[in-house]
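Hey,

Quick one before I head out. I ran the complex with PPS overnight. Inputs first:
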Amino acid sequence: MPNEDKMECPANVVKRCKLAILDGVPLMDMMQKNWEQVKLFQALPNDLLVASYPKAGTTWLLETVDMILNDGDIEKCQRAPIYDRIPFLEEAGSASFPTGLEQIAKMTPPRIIKTHLPFHVVPKSFWEQGCKAIYIARNMKDNLVSYYHFHRMCREMPEPGTWEEFFMKFLNGEVVWGSWDEHVIGWWEERSSHRILYLFYEDMKEDPKREIIKVMQFLGKELPERIMDKIIHHTSFDVMKENPMTNHSTLPNCILDNSVSSFMRKGIVGDWKNHLTVAQNEVCDKQYSSKMADSTLQFRFIL
Ligand code: PPS
């Protein structure tokens, strides 16, 4: 049985981080201490990297991938909370939590590894080893809203300030993992030079089966219709919200304060309409158009 107990709260050691610029990317200041080791990480050829800008639907994709690789066996996917099953490459660790590198070192291949790193700072060995990667992207406005609420509830993230202040920081790329547009474009441009499957949150919402089939084909898996339906059900928002192995409720309130907002918050496309003022929406549209002007990458803001 998985351990559903809440992790111990390290007394008074959880504090909001500051930004540290590492190789040009704003990251959490605590990530400085093992940044050189992260860059030197030696991937194995059968490692699977799951990458995203934060709050783009990473957890949803990770659970989907874990279910596919375990042939839809729910019990196997209940073996541990998602952050223990699938290590986070750049996780800096704490008194009560190992670093991502320590977790990865203990895993038996084939390993699934999560990252939020922009493409240009992903350890080179992933590409030297010919690893597969799946990237998930989410439209800028919903991504912004989700990231704002996550900053409010996650006591390790920098202080978000007011919604208006966070809005400007996000647009200026002055948030952890940097600018949204550089992230989504950076991975998009590399997708055909490496074994990268590029997915969209909006597509997963629109037609999960179609997207699951894409992932299965990419991973060389074949599963019967019945198992695919089981995976769709198990990875639906409502089911994942109630599942302690995916909803992050096993983390203590001093890290994720569920009284402020929920990790599994709304899980919809278009929640930005409830947050952005008309003026903010215009600013977003202008920035989006200018950043995407030279790219074939396009997002949907409503379904
Ligand atoms: S993190 O912390 O970066 O790993 O967060 P991430 O998992 O990328 O993103 C969290 C947002 O994804 C939503 N979510 C889902 N949406 C639809 N279906 C499913 N199954 C699902 N699981 C997670 C989650 O609710 C967060 O989005 P918001 O808009 O805040 O609700």
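The chain has a mean pLDDT of 96.

Talk tomorrow,
K.
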